[in-house]
## 1
Amino acid sequence: MSELGFWGFERPDGSVGIRNHVAILAVMDNVNGVVKHLAQLVKGTLPIPVWYGRGQFGADDVLYRRTQVGLAANPNIAAVLVISLERVSAEKVAAAIAESGKPVEHISVQDIGGSVEALAAGIRKLIPMVEAASAERAKFVPLSKLVLGVECGGTDTTSGIAANPALGYVADQVVASGGTVYLSETSEWMGAEQVLVKRAKTEAISAEIWAAVRRIEDSAVARGVDIRGANPVPDNIRGGITTIEEKSLGAIIKGGTTEIQGVLDYATPAEGKGLYVMDTAAPAAESMTGLAAGGAQIILFSTGQMNIMGNLIAPTVKVTGNPRTAERLRDNVDVDVSPMLQGETLEVAGRRLLEFTLSVASGRYTKAEILGEEDIAISRIEPTV
């Protein structure tokens, strides 16, 4: 294999995007209509509608805004138009995004005169943004510029013995090349947390891993749920998973085998290189949103029985080790590593997946992108006030 790298778009902050979207970001859900209409009117734009955005306080408000700004600041975004109902929030979010160095404009629907005026003004602001983004040309950059997120869903017995090890192979190659990898889904560490803590760079990081798992379990118990008794969930059991330890040991290997450099809060970028664990909820939409808001340009998603969802910002590669899924749901599968069940080595399967990952990083579309099966969901802590 030639020098490991990909073709991407350099950003002012030194990061590299694998897509060159001009994003239209809704600050709150009551302007989603304007955001969606603008994306229909202006070619080359990516709408980012949201749910909620008002009546959130304390930790929820911090989490929500950090995630929004992180999504817009993701390297895959070339420029951003921020849309809000009123001026204060529009200016606040736009100013935070501008710290990444990328072009940002904002519109307040109330102050500009309503939906129709917002559409007109939005089109005029978006035209030069799209022109500039379309004029950029990708450059070949080393693999050290990649931030990779790893995810799993629809887990079955093939996940832990084929798909997840293949993801882990790619993760190790990215780290070895000087890149960054995020392993998320905190409840998926439960039952295997003792393995993760042994790989932590410091005792403090080990303590943070223990604390993250304990916090998830205590929160569930406080609401009358026994995660260790309820996990694996019914679709996992249907796929042949018998215990939470079996599921978690299979899940953590998708992050590879290298030393853990730190524990990241949800939607928080790493400050260094190597493997990090991100404290996120397990559902794919929320977890992948946290990964993308933390700066992941691409996500590898292993799925035994198939979860079709991709992330709106970070192209999502669906990988299966189940030969029945590879055939029956082939329209959703990007990479089939089920030959591992018949003797294909981890290195051969892993290199196939790495080559596909680099092709996606260089512009190839994933099935989720082609089919438009992409979304985001920002995690929440408390009800809206």
## 2
Amino acid sequence: MGISQPHNLRGNPDSRNQRPYGVRVSLRANDPFRKLLGQDWSRTHWFATVAERDIALADMSRRHEYSRAGDAPALRFEKVEKLAESRGL
């Protein structure tokens, strides 16, 4: 599934700069959207530094200010790393 408004994503995914630190966003096992997007849907956002990644992760996973009482984020967030880029191998 493509991104409907790719210009709204932070950063430039086509940039040649190394971005070894990432956040993989996926659906929880019981999420009904898995029927629409597929069982293995995920999207990875890449960042140049650990600090950038951690700030973005905190922002992505926070409880939205317009959420109803009892709502919880429906997405799963996982820190990932491209070891070859981050270690300079």
## 3
Amino acid sequence: MSNTTILRTRGLSKHFAGFAAVQNVDIEVAQGSIHALVGPNGAGKTTCFNLLSKFLDPSSGDIYFHDQNITRMQPADVARLGMVRSFQISATFPHMTLLENVRVGLQRSAGLAHQFWRPTRVLKRLDDEAMRFLDLVGLVAQPDQLAANLPYGHKRALELATTLAMNPQLLLLDEPTQGLGHEDVEQVTELIRRVAQGRTVLMVEHNMSVISRICDRVTVMQRGQVLAEGSYAEVAGNPEVIAAYMGESTEEMHA
């Protein structure tokens, strides 16, 4: 983790019909870190995440990516800058192979993003790099398998491989372990740790055990505002954070 800030907000707010879902949020994400955005139900973390990934426009405040103001940019524009949200391409192509799915992600950086009609031999030059990403997520042994046939945990791995193929500088992960069984949670946690090498990850995550193991910094939200920020140990021991999680799962906070 470096001292360079890759993403920051100033006074970020979002109102819905007079209700302040997010209000005056200042966040800084360090380059090369794994940064988690957490909070009890209704804390505003999902709305904040949607603002950061440009799926919502703020009511006020600013968002900067590498010191460039991206507040009014569209999701596709910030993706071109290198900030990619996993669910933007998380619906895998079920009747394409794993290799073909990852190759779709590679086509953008290769200047072939809209050239699906090109002969297969033109796209095959991307195969070696696609295999590298499949290897990174543990799927290299089955490149010709159809995505539709993968178990759920492996589909999440394929989604991540395809996202990484877009060469993001900042990877935004929305609840990456949601809906996974214990074994798959363990695999995806290790996968995130592995793919984060040399990259920056900002994630919304509810599983505190996952956060405690892989995150460098944690921002806790409550009622649309930042309640606390620091290492996992710092926020887990914060009395205000513990109080905020009362009625949720204090056991999870101390997992």
